[in-house]
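pasting for ref
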Amino acid sequence: MLQRKTTGSIVCPNCGRLVSANARQCIHCGRRNPGLWGFGPGLRKLLGENYGVSSYIIGACIFLYVIAILIDPTAILRRSSAFSFLAPSNEALDQLGMTGRYAIASGRWWTVLTAIYLHAGILHILFNMLWMNQLGQIVQELFGSSRMFLIFTISGVLGFILSTYLGVPFTVGASGSIFGLLGALIYYGRFRGGQFGAAIYRQVGIWALVLFLFGFMSPAVNNIAHAGGFVGGYLSAMLLGYQERRHETALHRRLALLAAALTVIAFLLEAFH
């Protein structure tokens, strides 16, 4: 059971500094209601110290993967290869918002948002969610939760737009967005500089190279979306900035809420299409 903490000090979830538990606004970074009206410490105990936007993204992807399986459970018996093990049917993915040339040609522009959260098999979602958990927390720490979600969303959309424009007929997955997180970290490492920036740049550069090579060696991987997402993440990070240069502002939070609302609306449009 959650308990409210309305006295004493808490750690602001945005900037990591001490602030009064009942403060309406963090005196350091300006975040509104840093104590979540007193429920912040209880939520941390319930969800763990590292909960954040990436956890909700992972939860949404897993939920939709299960829904896709339940729409057509017999599909998992028709799959034969390791890459298609426990894979939802194409019909189920299409019902939930798979994107690509055919979806866009039919006027379903919103699928460039919905397809980010859909996955084509157990290995697909497992691989992506492991990287999401790793990279999402790093980007959230360096850029803030609102900018992290904006980078994730913009990168995925740009990756799918590029791959659709170049003729990919059907595609799903969060990997374009994940490559966007890599692109954002590459930008951070280059422009932050110093030993820490150089270490981030080297480490993330190796990860990006390995993932790009893995994509080209794997069947049915949308490498165009990966490249588009990487560029989208780099450019998004350049435009939005990172925490050490400027803390997240009310505008960043409003834009993140707008991106979240558009994603929900996209799923509603697909459900009633």
